Amino acid sequence: MSIPYNINPVKATCMKYDCTDHGIQGINDTCFGICASYSGTYDTFDMDPKCSKACTDLVEQRKRQIFGVGSCDHQVPYRPVAWEQVPRYVPVLLRKGLNPEQALKKCNELCKSNSLKEQCQEDCLTDFNAIEQFEQQPSVKPKLLSSLSSSSSSSSSSKITIVSIVVTALIVLSVLLYFKFK
To answer: Residue ranges of the domains in the chain?
Structure first.
């Protein structure tokens, strides 16, 4: 059963951390952790691509704010290992048909028996905060949204990505030509 809600990992991450005045690693780990919990996988390279893109864009935006550069800098946080010490109950409960408020309440109840109760309850709230009402047909899969501040940052990010691809292709071509004519 799919979840009849939009999932916005950026909104929930920025509710947990001030995304304009916080380091990259916590933002990175939290955002991708939300994607992992709603994608039902611990493999951060095998999760919903829209969710991953939203988190990548958030981290990229934060890197520009802190360091003045993006992915070309060596300060790129890698996708975290999405191994959780406590279960992420809210996405599972939503799939079972509970509404978000019921899922949050049940999640907090389930956390009471966990040895890491506070972490479990914090994850319940974070996953709950990622939920947005889905306005269309409830049978449609959740649409993952990015709430980055401006469309210009995403367009400049895509320009940088294109430039990076072109530069990489030219380097590879140069190396191949060098060895061919050597």
So the answer is: 5-148, 150-182
